[in-house]
Amino acid sequence: MRIRLRQLRRDERGMSFVFVGLGFMAFFAATTLAIDVGMFMTARSQAQNAADAGALAGATALVFNSYTNRTAGGPVVQSAINTAMANAVMGSAASVQPGDVTFPLGPTGLDNRVKVEVFRTSTRSNPVTTLIGPIFGINNVDIWATATAEASPANATTCVKPFMIPDRWEENSVPPNNTFDRYDNHGNVLPNADVYYPPGHPQYRGWSVNDKGTLLTIRAGTGNNVESSFYFSWKMPGWQIGGDFYRENIANCNMTVISVPYFMIQEPGNKVGETIQGIELLEDQDPTARWDDVNDVVVSPLSPSPRVFPIPLYDPDYYQDNMTHGRNADFKMVNWVGFFLEGHTGNDVYGRIAPITGVIDPNAGPAPAGTFPMAIRLVQ
Known about the structure:
Elements: H1 2-10, H2 15-64, H3 75-86, E1 101-102, E2 113-120, E3 128-129, E4 140-141, E5 143-153, E6 156-157, E7 163-166, E8 215-220, E9 230-233, H4 243-251, E10 258-259, E11 262-264, H5 272-285, E12 290-292, E13 297-299, E14 308-314, H6 316-324, E15 331-345, E16 348-353, E17 374-378
Parallel strand pairs: 7-14, 8-9
Antiparallel strand pairs: 1-2, 2-5, 3-4, 5-17, 6-10, 7-9, 8-16, 11-15, 12-13, 14-15, 15-16
Helix pairs in contact: 2-3, 4-5
């Protein structure tokens, strides 16, 4: 009996079961980590996507719907909430309440930011449920994310159309008229001369978002007169020239990034025929688009509608000064105005002043105060 006990004491058979058991526990723990932690990381990424989308939607609504209505039921807050909740987090909508959409100031003091927070937490009664965690007493985890977007003044834009109109000026002529009258034929400043203040000047009177919905009719200019609604044809960037290229740039989007200031050269002729042909092609791309007079927005099945585009604005003083002093009669683009194309009658093209987006060109200077397009981007 003693011999048998001594043999059992030295016998190592069965130790493999101990190692297998310990190994199984380690494998089980690693599996738990891989499944649940991986799921948490996915949930966190999806929550961030929801917050990003909500913030961008809110900033977009600031530009296109209302910059001032920031109430819980307003378009900015509701766009942010609806867009964020449309991006599911682990198959379920995150919780986003009106109080989760806030408007922090940017570093420059502009009130142009939208911050959105999304939650899947126990306090909101929608935490993310674990798969393996309950074995260890962890039934769920809290996931949340935040994002901030801003609508900042843009110093550049694309899809600019190849016709240009003068920026608005201070009218001092007696009696008032629709022409810019500052210099006589010898380049001398007239009595009661009209004055143009460029973007960034405290007295700038150019087009702004406050003009949204204003009806604007443009027509081909004649001679060298600077008239408020008369356009000149512009030779846009690109290797092609002539009427076909001009018409193509109206009907479609020239992706060249145009920053301010930009010096433009006039196309020979007024290009009336090509302008109307391009306008008709553009209308055909979104035939049901219309302007909603009640809400001052474009109603279209396309987002954005191709019938909303930037028109370049030139400095009327720079052009007239050059003309009267015998210098090159080129055009200095100083800003843009957003335009929703409603239609055309004969040679007249009419539409509404509408918000437009732009871009930030890192190779250009800062956007001047009063610039029309806004760049929508995530900042946090």
